[in-house]
Write a structure and sequence with these properties.
The chain is mainly α. The protein has five helices and no strands. The chain is globular, with a radius of gyration of 13 Å.
Length: 101
């Protein structure tokens, strides 16, 4: 596969991603665990959009547990930005941050 130019993550997306990660780390364990399925769904949605934008078949993002979930989200945010697959990414992350209670 030929290398593609990577688009930098916008300041707005980077700021929202940082806020989500910080909020996640502030949550008590039981509250964090109650959001795992929702966050995994967002990660999978981003992976599916990246695959579609890249002309690849979708595949399931492996469940590596809640300790790695923010790393998976971060990777997918960067990948989605690189292929311009998520035009509402900042809004999606802001919504997620507000839901993390």
């Amino acid at each position: 596969m030929a290398p593609t130019a990577r688009l930098p993550v916008s300041r707005e997306v980077a700021a929202e991603l940082q806020r989500v990660v910080e909020r996640w780390h502030q949550l008590p364990l039981d509250q964090a665990l109650s959001h795992v399925d929702h966050i995994r769904a967002l990660v999978q949605s981003l992976a599916d959009r990246v695959a579609g934008a890249s002309g690849l078949a979708s595949s399931v993002v492996p469940d590596l547990g809640p300790a790695t979930l923010m790393d998976q989200l971060t990777v997918m945010v960067h990948d989605a930005t690189a292929v311009a697959a998520a035009p509402t990414l900042a809004e999606d992350l802001a919504r997620l941050r507000r839901e993390l209670r």
